[in-house]
Structure formats: C-alpha cells, structure tokens
Amino acid sequence: MQEVTPISPQQPVQAPEPATQGGDTSATDQFGLGFESLLQIVLTQLTYQDPLEPMDNFEFVSQLAQFSQIQQTQEMSDNLEVLVRAQSTGQAANLLGRTVDVAAGSGQISGEVTAVAFQDGAPSLTIETSAGATISGLPLGNVTQIRETQ
Predict the structure, then answer these.
(1) Sheet strand arrangement including 134-139
(2) How far apart are the C-alpha atoms of 7 and 13, rounded to whole Å?
(3) Residues 69-125: pLDDT tens digits?
C-alpha cells in the first residue's frame, strides 16, 4: 500500500506513476490511479478538511459515486479488451484452409490460409497463392473476402 501525504489547498494533487506489469496496459495503468488510490485521496481530503467548513455530505457521496463509476469503467474496458482479443483469435483460426482475398497496396492477393501467427495478441495470416508463393504477416483486418477452398 502506498503512503499518503497530506494535501494542502495550495498544493496540486499529483497522480502516482502508472505501474506496468509485463508489458500489459490496463485501464488502471492508463488512468494512473486505481480505486484504492482514489479512496485514499478522499480519506486524505476528509482528514485535512477545515473543521469550521466540513465537506457537504452530498458532495462526499457524489465523489464516492464518481470513484465507483471510474472503477467500473476500468473493469469494463479491461473485460472488453480481453473479449476483442478472444474474438479475433477465433476468427483467425476459422480461416485456416479457406481461400481469402487480402488487400495489399493498391491490389489484392488471393490464396489459401495455411497458418495463423500472433504478434502482440494480433493475428496475422500466412497464405499460399495459386502460383505457389507463400506470403506471411498479413493482418487479419486486411481480409476483404473469404471463400471455401475449391
């Protein structure tokens, strides 16, 4: 757990440096604060508030609700990222053995998908053309047409 320093009204609040774990970037890393860090800020704010002008209850509950929404948004973003990766993996695997047209430059390349590779979680295809050439590293997003192998 991080140590919390008192916040004075004149001192700007600075977020801690985002932590990365194994190259993965989660929503918490992108925002720079986790839910626990945000709650620590509220508790610090309450600890050092002016006793003659305490924080309004409505304002306090409103801030807690905002922090809860941030946490839910972070979790939803992380879950959607996992879902999108799983979906693209399934789509790429289903192309094995099928003939595809892939946009390449100003033209198209046609061939049978012989392999699927994953680089940084993104699928890339290897195709064999009718002329016998093998082309690899084609992004799944460049596929323009899918046909059954004849």
Answers:
(1) 134-139, 122-128, 107-119, 99-104, 143-147
(2) 7
(3) 888 888 999 999 889 888 888 888 888 989 999 988 888 889 999 999 988 878 889
Q: What is the pTM of this model?
A: 0.51
145's tokens: 């047409």
pLDDT in tens, 2-29: 454 444 444 444 434 444 444 444 545 5
For residues 1 and 23, give the distance between their C-alpha atoms in angstroms, rounded to a whole number.
22
How many angstroms separate the CA atoms of 141 and 82, rounded? Answer: 18
| CB 75 within 8 Å of CB 37 | no
Tell me which long-range contacts 83-90 makes (C-beta under 8 A, separation of at least 24).
85/121, 88/122, 88/123, 88/140, 89/118, 89/123
Intra-chain end-to-end CA distance of the chain, in Å? 61
